[in-house]
Specification:
mainly alpha, 11% strand
């Protein structure tokens, strides 16, 4: 599936995604979560990222100097965050 088809499908499924989110169980408070944020300076974006950073008591917020596609612009920050989470899980037997 091409990029445009993927974006279109995400748009078409937005109501399904919203229902899934609305009906989801809350996250466990001790669940390790990492939020990677772009350098978007818009106040609404910053506030939304701060909300995400409070998802659990173990949420880490990493602010990058990259744009929307952090995984493409700096894949090392993404892989390092994943490795850190995996190592956290090993130490806690998650």
């Amino acid at each position: 599936m091409g990029a445009y088809q993927t974006i279109y499908q995400e748009y078409m499924d937005i109501a399904i995604s919203a229902d899934q989110l609305k009906n989801a169980k809350p996250l466990l408070n001790d669940l390790p979560v990492t939020v990677l944020s772009s350098n978007n300076p818009e106040e609404r974006w910053v506030q939304q990222q701060l909300l995400l950073s409070k998802l659990t008591a173990r949420t880490e917020h990493i602010q990058t100097d990259k744009g929307h596609s952090i995984h493409l612009e700096d894949p090392f920050v993404v892989t390092n965050a994943i490795i850190k989470l995996l190592n956290t899980g090993e130490s806690r037997n998650v």
